[in-house]
Structure formats: structure tokens, C-alpha cells
Amino acid sequence: MRDEAAILSARSLFILISVVPMARPKSEEKRDAILAAAVRVVADQGLGAPTARIASLAGVAEGTLFTYFATKDLLLNQLYLALKAELRDAMMTAYPAGGPLRDRVRHIWDRYVDWGVRDPAKRRAMAQLIVSDRLTPETRALGSEGFARIDGVVREGVAQGLMRDQPPDFVAAILTSLAETTMDFILRQPDSAERYRAAGFDALWNALSR
């Protein structure tokens, strides 16, 4: 009887495996394609754009999109984190640690402007996500973690008496506002890019320094 039960159990398991498809491992390539498509769609159509459009642009079924991101809000939160990480890496690559304070602020400024000019869609998507109430507090906190070095530059400048003591959020708002204006002018008049980049930085430094 035990042998028969074992045979039946083995057969049942075989049938179950044959009938129920095994879950396929998730593809990093598909995940990246969905995020890349989300950038374009959000930039062009806003946060209310349908997930079907994102899936279509990514070349996957809408059901596949929800395999990678269970809800649209989760997709938007993950998109925000991906863009923030990319921006952080752009700003911190070849960062002149230990250099003069003004040079370090200029490095951050130049890399930020370069990032926005290089891919305007990412910049537009980020601008919409930042003001969205669909981002969770946890997501916002995670997105800010990688920018501690920038906050440190400001604190160092204040301690040295070179910069005004302003709230970090206010400093970030000034940086973003001036960078957005500079990017707009560079995209409209690329031949004058260096002129606008330098003028934008001078405005930033004058706003922050004593």
C-alpha cells in the first residue's frame, strides 16, 4: 500500500508540474525596458498616462508590466528612484573631493545641467514625479540618501563662512530652479551653452555665498 501511495504521489506531482507552468525568472532587460518606456510616456503624457501605453512602448504585454511592478504607483516610485540614482551618479562621477569649495559646487552644477540637457525626457519625468503625491515618504527618503555629499558641501560652506545658512530644501529648490532655467536656454540655443551654463552657475553661487 505504501508503494502504491508513493507511486500515486509521484504521478500527481508529475501531472502538477506538467499542467502548471513554472514561474519564469524576471528579466532585468525587460524591467529596464519598462522603466525606459515609463520615462518617455510620463514625460509626454504625464503621470495619468495609461500603463497600456507604457507596456506597448516597452514591447511587452500589460500583464507582463504588472508582473514586474504590481501597481502603477509602485512603477512610478521605482522610476523616481531610478532617475534619482542616475542623477546622483552623474553628479558625483569624478567629483573633486578635497578641492576648493567653489570648484566642487561648480562640478555638481555642471553635471546636473549636463544630465538634464542630455535627456530632456528624463528631466521632464523627474519634474513631474517630484511634485507628485503618489510618491511614498519612504521613496522620498530613499531618493535623498545618495545626496548626502551635496548637503555636506553646503554645511562645510556655512561652517567656513563662505555660504549663507539656509535650509537644505531651500538650497535644493534654488539649485533646481536655476538649473531648469539654464537647461531650457541651452536647449533653445545650444550654440550659447557655455555662456548660459556659466551665467547660471554665477547666479547660483551669488545666491548661496556670502
TrEMBL record:
Residues 50-69 bind DNA. InterPro entries: Homeodomain-like_sf (IPR009057), HTH-type_TetR-like_transc_reg (IPR050109), HTH_TetR (IPR001647), Tet_transcr_reg_TetR-rel_C_sf (IPR036271). Residues 28-87 form the HTH tetR-type domain. The keyword DNA-binding applies. Keywords: DNA-binding. Pfam families: TetR_N. It comes from the Bacteria. GO terms for molecular function: DNA binding. The keyword DNA-binding applies. Gene3D superfamilies: Tetracycline Repressor, domain 2. This is TetR family transcriptional regulator. The lineage of its organism: Bacteria, Pseudomonadati, Pseudomonadota, Alphaproteobacteria, Rhodospirillales.
